[in-house]
Fold:
Amino acid sequence: TENILTMTDLPLGTIDKILTNAQEFAHTPYWFEKKNVFAANLFFEPSTRTKLSFEAAEKKLGLEVLNFEADTSSVKKGETLYDTVKTIESLGADVVVIRHETDRYFDELAGKINIPMINGGDGCGHHPTQSLLDLLTIKQEFQSFIDLNIVVAGDVRHSRVARSNIEALERLGANVFVSGPEEWMEGELRSRYIPMDEAAEMADVMMMLRIQHERHAVQMVAGVEEFHQKYGLTVKRERLMKPGSIIMHPAPVNRNVEIADELVECKRSRIFKQMKNGVAVRMAVLDHVLQLTKGGYKK
Ligand code: CP
Structure:
């Protein structure tokens, strides 16, 4: 059984295969015949993009979708994560997608669940399918990752998207920098830090992040306007960016906090392109773990 839990665990060859297949899915309107294959989506944390794009990907692949609502499930009666996932497996799911607020929730499941598990985000840990859709978006734009200057800016410390992307982009040969409040940068992040104006000038990709209020132990942001001016992608900073450089954001976006309202859909923005790519990438990830299209595609 192959799981997709972190980018760290994914060999470069697998990343390359998933991106190549995702590009194929993105460009060709494949629609697969219905199969007797069941996908369960277990979201214990809020989600719009990841949950719905997995559902869209599953339906496009011809899978049957089992949705799960944490708030009306037996988790409310104290059932554990392990017992919940084991139940889903026993009911006949062939693959399970899980988002959970606990970092590395999957460690307690590994080796005990006999269907592929795909991580849809774990606490401040990892978000591999977001990273893969970001990689696809960058590849479509620049063809290669070698020596690209990528700046991940904002609440880097609490971001599972940042963690997954920094690790993967570094391995793929990009130069990865971080920006935002310097006091939020700890350990390894410190060596990557550059101030926001410098970041805007040198970036090929400006990857903006939302402030993860839900993960801050204390209120760390005094004023939204002050944060925007000091650390956000303002209209003024966008003007410093090089021709051909792009703006990305995993979304949800807090307009006029980490990014100016006018920039969300500006010419450089690939934010909605990222979301579109999310469906194709999740099709490729599901195909990879379930080996659905091994025998060839049926249009
Ligand atoms: N980017 C992302 O993971 O969005 P959702 O939280 O809406 O799924």
